[in-house]
Write a structure and sequence with these properties.
The chain is an all-alpha fold. It contains four helices and no strands. The longest helix has 29 residues. The chain is elongated and about 105 Å long. The mean pLDDT is about 80.
Length: about 130
């Protein structure tokens, strides 16, 4: 029966030299699937958002009940936002009213620019006919 030795510094050095000198081999590479990468990114973003919420709640001085209620609502929103057909978090896009005044102005300008151009063109045509 062969003896089992723990990995010492010389063995680590030899392994590193072998990997440095070798062409990329399957045993030197860890393959991550796209799902693993996306899941890791999503979890990282979710943790950052939770930390930001905790900091905001600490600054606002909210009670624990209110904070728990907000986090629960945020979790429900994130589940409702996931669109299964497109496999993205765009499920609530365009379904809620716009709260920001600047965004409302921008939307109004975009939606009303075409009728202005249309009416200007029609009035120019009517002037040419007359």
């Amino acid at each position: 029966m062969p003896a089992v030795y723990s990995i010492d510094l010389i063995a680590k050095r030899d392994r590193k030299i072998k990997m440095d000198r070798s062409i990329i081999k399957g045993w030197n590479v860890h393959y991550q699937t796209l799902k693993e990468v996306e899941e890791a990114a999503r979890l990282k973003k979710q943790h950052q958002e939770e930390e930001m919420q905790k900091q905001e709640q600490a600054e606002d001085g909210m009670s624990d009940d209110e904070a728990a209620k907000e986090t629960e609502e945020a979790a429900q929103d994130s589940e409702a936002m996931f669109n299964k057909k497109t496999k993205s978090y765009s499920g609530l896009y365009g379904k809620r009213p716009v709260q920001d005044a600047d965004e409302q102005k921008q939307i109004h300008a975009i939606l009303n620019e075409k009728p202005d151009a249309y009416t200007a063109a029609m009035s120019a045509l009517q002037e040419q006919e007359a």
